[in-house]
Amino acid sequence: MSIPASASNLLSVSDLSVEFRMPAGAFRALERVSFRVPRGRTVALVGESGSGKTVIAQTIMGLLPANGEITSGQLLFDHDKSAQTPPRDIARLARSDRGLRALQGRHMGMVFQEPMSALSPLHTIGDQVSESARFHLRLSGAAARALTIDTLRLVGFPDPDRAWQAYPFELSGGLRQRAVIAMAIICRPALLIADEPTTALDVTIQAQILALLQRLQDELDMAVLLITHDLGVVAHLADEIVVLHQGQVMEAGDRRAIFSAPAHPYLRALLDAVPRLVPSPSSSLSGAGDDPAGVAARADLKKIDPDAILSVQGVDKGFQSRAASRARAGGAAPIAAVADVSFDLYRGECVGLVGESGCGKTTTARLIMRALMPDAGEIRFRGTDIATFQGRALSDYRTRVQYIFQDPFSSLNPRMTIGDLLCEPLQIHGRGNRASRRARARMLMQRVGLDPDHLARYPHAFSGGQRQRIGIARALALDPELLICDEPVSALDVSVQARILALLKDLQAELSLTYLFVSHDLAVVRQIADRVIVMHRGRVVETGGCDELFRNPIHPYTRALLAAVPDPDPDTPFDFAAAMASAAGGTDGWPVPFRETGTLPARMKPVSPTHFVRVFDAHAA
Fold it and tell me: Where are the beta strands (DSSP E) in 255-358?
């Protein structure tokens, strides 16, 4: 289908086909794809991993790999509203063309899916964000710094001046993603290609970023090509939707028509797989607390094994900033990443750990893995303080406690094949022989929905979602007792996400596994968790059974988190600006007794026998 050029269209994609030259022959990634991006509007590309969404973005930006080739079609880009410059056909521009370079970064910006691969570890955030402003806008150092600081503030950095001199490794995953977004919008482009722009962000910061994009569209007439698996975001942000499957357009149309009357079976399956705070009867997953058989099974396990498998008691962890470290004597006090955190995990249950980026979730998980040592408090596994583990005992502990990392690109060695990556933990711990390890690797690939025949491939040959599934398979290799899941499905599209969550629930039932499920996606936590722990600025502010906490949230921070989750229904009102204001309000807007006054101590007040909330009152004395 050909999309005719129009003054109202910023980008017109017509009959686009892309092939990749592979050792086994040509692979057709896109097949006659056509759609348009009107000026000042948002068009969403949705579909499973490998459907061709990112290939479209790479093609528009002129970033196809060397073995990729446009075999047919047009990409007409018309950024000049005055019509003095004719539209440019990006498909006809060579990679080395100066005209393409003039478009990249200045008139087209791109937010990449994985911030660790988009940011240089050797340069500060300020240098990297300001680079486009210096090159395209010809700004001086001082002017570029001022614009960068302002942009960092717009994307939600709490301290932009500090972020200017920070390196990527010093930031949380959410802050790194915000830095990438700042790089893309600093020149205020006509077209912003956002490849999973909020995947790594918690819901409140997601609301801030989406509100920012909406405001920029109004002010600058900027169009957005949104690539996402979050249909909740699509339902409230997109004007038009294009549904892709295996490189072809399955369905396209107006947002309301797509959600109210999906025609293609593939689209209907995607909508059914979307996690919701209130699970629908047709959902692929029901909430963990809604499963009577699962509740009964976990109750039986508690009778057999009533003691906590893991107990975290009064744990503190602080980090010294680089500036304070250089000052040494007389430097600032350590920044408290975790403060007086206490909770228990029991065999066979899943506990969700939720909160904004920087609240201490990942630090808590790393403390449990003994990748970090606490400054105070203790963590006991099966009654033994893990700080005492040395040598063989520590090695055995790490076979029983495994970790699924948030960023699969940085956790998988790019020089090892997938087969070697899956066999490596078995080899390190002396499990089996070469043949049995390879058989185990094939089985793990099947369990996470990947082709076992792809064991000889390298991580770069897989999409972001596929790499995350490989990370999950690697964590399962040693048959762990406790699995720490740090954003395990944040990079997956909804249908694969549903299958992975179903797999984790099946494994929990079959093997009596225990999960600590770290996530910013409250709808996902609602689907899988038995209990929920809510953290804010390193402290636990509310904890309780999943069903009870979601039905009756008490703490204002918990309420703000739930209010910031967009429902995948365009007819359900959602005010991004209001969610942003609620998220940015801080603790000063909290009512008594939740706000710290400096005179009253804190305590975890019982709401019910299993539901507790942090308050400041005289009873804590």
Answer: 310-319, 335-345, 350-354
- Would you state the pLDDT for residue 468? 79
Give me 415's structure tokens. Answer: 């020089």
Query: Which tokens belong to 38?
Result: 């009107």
pLDDT tens-digit series, residues 191-215: 999 888 776 667 777 777 777 777 7
Strands (E) in 290-334, as ranges, are 310-319
Distance CA 257, CA 496 (A): 24
Q: Which DSSP symbol is given to 491?
A: T
The list of the chain residues with pLDDT below 70 reads 1-7, 81-84, 173, 199-201, 279-305, 321-332, 464, 491, 575-586, 618-621
Q: What is the pTM of this model?
A: 0.77
The crossing angle, in degrees rounded to 10, of helices 203-220 and 173-185 is 0
Rounded alpha-carbon distances, angstroms, from residue 391 to 168, 384, 561: 32, 15, 42
Report helix, strand and coil shares of the chain as percent, to nearest 5. 40, 25, 35
Q: Give the amino acid at 247.
A: G
E strand or H helix at 108, and its extent?
strand 108-111
Under 8 Å between Cβ of 125 and 164? yes
Query: 394-400 long-range CB contacts below 8 Å, 24 or more apart?
Result: 394/370, 395/429, 397/370, 398/369, 398/370, 399/429, 399/478, 399/480, 400/480, 400/481, 400/482
Tokens 């009756």 sit at which residue? Answer: 552
23: burial class by Cβ within 10 Å (0-12, 13-18, 19+)? exposed
